[in-house]
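Check the record.
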Amino acid sequence: MASALKLGAGALRELRIHLCQKSPASAGVRQFIEQDYVPLKKANKDFPILIRECSGILPRIWARYDYGVELSESLENMPREKVSTIIENLAKKGGVRV
């Protein structure tokens, strides 16, 4: 689970999660925020995790790494558990361009 995940040990410097407050496509992301965000943030107090809500936007996560490298993944129609898995995968990538 993402709550035990330690962020910032490698090249990852920031996570940004974009979602819509009402869209069905963002339902899994909203569930992740409601159920998993607080434990994840408590485990990573000094790591920037930014939540951005915008009406009508498709949900997406952005990971910023060393040297300004950014990767993003769509979170459209993803269940809560898959959002956690995507965060774990982005934390492991270390900014390698794919």
Remarks:
- The mean pLDDT is 91.
